[in-house]
Amino acid sequence: MKLTLTLATLATAVATAKEFNGFSYNPKQLKTGACPTVDTVREDLSVLSKYTNQVRIYSVKDCNQGEPVLRAMENTDWKVQLGMWVSEVESVYEADRNELIRLAGLFDFKKHVSAVIVGNEAIYRKEQTSAQIAAKVRDTKAALAKAGLGSIPVTASETWPHYDPTLIAAVDYVNVHAFPFWEGTPIAGAQDKVFQHIYDVQKLAGSKKVVVGETGWPDAGGNHEAAVPSLANEQRYLKEFICRANLEKIDYIWFSAFDEAWKPVTNASDVETHWGVLKGDKSPKFASPMYDCKGFVPNDKPSSSSSASSSASSSKTGGKASTTPSGHSNTNKSDGKSSDTEDESDSDSSSDSQESSDTSKSGAASLLVGSGLSAVGIAASVAALAVSALI
């Protein structure tokens, strides 16, 4: 009886497990960049539900997107990481903060909001200091606590060289971005590169959890030095990163859900419309499952590293990035930093775009999915348990 109940519980976990911890998601309409409606968001979530039950957005105020996203999630098990855009203009943060609190009075944040993310690479863009972002994190935490929502984790998103002790002290967990593509890394070295950055940040973070808030690889566009965008490379990076993250119980948000045709070509980059795991017509680029961890063996974990200090001190290349919200960011080869490359398509001066991850489900499913295990890994756990119980 005990075995039957245990297997039934784990079988439920397999059925509900998703291939991804979560996606970066811009709810603007894929072809035109028009602001979302509840119906367009519901359509997107219906497509994405095959792969995950969590998305990250970058602003609640830009296009007033927070409300349709939360409305579309009502009566579902969807989770959202709500972003608040931060730039050098303080009123942008204030508008997002005010909208966040307004939405908290309308929706069940405890059910649907898995995190609140204050700022997206604002330190990298030199629009804020780490002390300024840390102060905004504390301000947001205080506002949520006043609304009875102090249990919702609050963090900030930054590229790996820019998470310093000041920012780490303020956040509930570290939400870090790393893109080997934007460092000009060939695909064969990308696994080592991204995990080296993770380990460096983990050392700095101490006891605080480190989540990869953004990583990915484009399938088309121009090369970035030795980094080549292609469908094969996107799938290789996806498999190597996620399978290793699952093994090491590292949560992540994948960049990104969809290819977005409306994004402009900026900073001499023509890859910005090609980061999705689904095409612009919402069809998948890869067969399901999109990756298979069977037989996967991670590269050796390095014993020490100086990559954080050496890369962080490198000079920045290229011009200053756009400060408007919308997606991820170009990461310069020399410093591993990302810069947002979207331009604003509506009158709101706030923001939108990018993702951490803790998929919450109940019972055994939450333990397994929250640990970052894929459906394939969970299925293996079921089989192993059945065999060991019968021996």
UniProtKB/TrEMBL annotation:
<dbReference type="GO" id="GO:0071555">
    <property type="term" value="P:cell wall organization"/>
</dbReference>
<keyword id="KW-0624">Polysaccharide degradation</keyword>
<keyword id="KW-0119">Carbohydrate metabolism</keyword>
<keyword id="KW-0378">Hydrolase</keyword>
<keyword id="KW-0472">Membrane</keyword>
<keyword id="KW-0964">Secreted</keyword>
<protein>
    <recommendedName>
        <fullName>glucan endo-1,3-beta-D-glucosidase</fullName>
        <ecNumber>3.2.1.39</ecNumber>
    </recommendedName>
</protein>
<feature type="compositionally biased region" description="Low complexity">
    <location>
        <begin position="350"/>
        <end position="364"/>
    </location>
</feature>
<comment type="similarity">
    <text>Belongs to the glycosyl hydrolase 17 family.</text>
</comment>
<dbReference type="InterPro" id="IPR017853">
    <property type="entry name" value="GH"/>
</dbReference>
<dbReference type="GO" id="GO:0000272">
    <property type="term" value="P:polysaccharide catabolic process"/>
</dbReference>
<feature type="region of interest" description="Disordered">
    <location>
        <begin position="297"/>
        <end position="364"/>
    </location>
</feature>
<keyword id="KW-0732">Signal</keyword>
<keyword id="KW-1003">Cell membrane</keyword>
<dbReference type="GO" id="GO:0005886">
    <property type="term" value="C:plasma membrane"/>
</dbReference>
<keyword id="KW-0961">Cell wall biogenesis/degradation</keyword>
<dbReference type="Pfam" id="PF00332">
    <property type="entry name" value="Glyco_hydro_17"/>
</dbReference>
<keyword id="KW-0134">Cell wall</keyword>
<dbReference type="InterPro" id="IPR050732">
    <property type="entry name" value="Beta-glucan_modifiers"/>
</dbReference>
<feature type="signal peptide">
    <location>
        <begin position="1"/>
        <end position="17"/>
    </location>
</feature>
<dbReference type="GO" id="GO:0009986">
    <property type="term" value="C:cell surface"/>
</dbReference>
<keyword id="KW-0326">Glycosidase</keyword>
<keyword id="KW-0325">Glycoprotein</keyword>
<dbReference type="GO" id="GO:0005576">
    <property type="term" value="C:extracellular region"/>
</dbReference>
<feature type="compositionally biased region" description="Low complexity">
    <location>
        <begin position="301"/>
        <end position="327"/>
    </location>
</feature>
<dbReference type="GO" id="GO:0009277">
    <property type="term" value="C:fungal-type cell wall"/>
</dbReference>
<dbReference type="GO" id="GO:0042973">
    <property type="term" value="F:glucan endo-1,3-beta-D-glucosidase activity"/>
</dbReference>
<comment type="function">
    <text>Glucanases play a role in cell expansion during growth, in cell-cell fusion during mating, and in spore release during sporulation. This enzyme may be involved in beta-glucan degradation. Active on laminarin and lichenan.</text>
</comment>
<dbReference type="InterPro" id="IPR000490">
    <property type="entry name" value="Glyco_hydro_17"/>
</dbReference>
